[in-house]
């Protein structure tokens, strides 16, 4: 990827309840589900994110929202990242001031991008008798919007009206820019 990830791992997931984007460019969904074995043979255990999330909060840090795990492409902010009984829930905003953020809204609305992926470092894990790696503690760094999630059975859906709102905004902005350029 062109950057030293220092052992950073990634897990992809398509939330079965769906990732939605609304007219305010807000998205929400599960970035990870407890007890689900991914294509890499890993299973995240309940409580695996607790220490990392508490440490980030205590230090004033935040889990980053990236495009396809690229640290040079932040596309929004996660306003809420929490564990519940199902997994890792995230809720945040795509930033319309960022070109890739606008593109992400359109791609989600069209169904071209439909996954979430976590970037993390394993702190504690063990193997079970079935050949799986059970992740007991991870240091969560980022949650990305991605094209290919690790759990193919989970699906992401988007509200079509959000994509239409964005397309309308972009069309108006380009028309205004053309008028400005033509006038000068």
UniProtKB/TrEMBL annotation:
Residues 24-160 form the Prohead serine protease domain. Keywords: Hydrolase, Protease, Viral release from host cell. One of its GO terms (molecular function) is peptidase activity. It comes from the Bacteria. One of its GO terms (biological process) is proteolysis. This is Prohead serine protease domain-containing protein.
């Amino acid at each position: 990827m062109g950057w030293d990830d220092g052992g950073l791992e990634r897990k992809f997931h398509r939330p079965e309840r769906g990732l939605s984007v609304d007219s305010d460019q807000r998205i929400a969904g599960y970035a990870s589900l407890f007890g689900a074995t991914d294509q890499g043979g890993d299973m995240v255990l309940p409580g695996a994110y607790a220490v990392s999330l508490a440490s980030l909060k205590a230090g004033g840090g935040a889990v980053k929202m990236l495009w396809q795990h690229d640290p040079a492409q932040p596309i929004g902010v996660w306003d809420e990242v929490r564990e519940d009984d199902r997994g890792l829930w995230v809720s945040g905003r795509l930033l319309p001031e960022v070109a890739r953020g606008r593109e992400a809204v359109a791609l989600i609305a069209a169904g071209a991008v439909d996954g979430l992926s976590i970037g993390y470092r394993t702190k504690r894990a063990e193997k079970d008798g079935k050949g799986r790696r059970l992740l007991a503690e991870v240091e969560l760094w980022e949650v990305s919007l991605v094209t290919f999630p690790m759990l193919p059975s989970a699906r992401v859906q988007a509200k079509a009206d959000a994509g239409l709102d964005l397309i309308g905004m972009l069309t108006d902005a380009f028309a205004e820019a053309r008028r400005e350029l033509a006038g000068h």
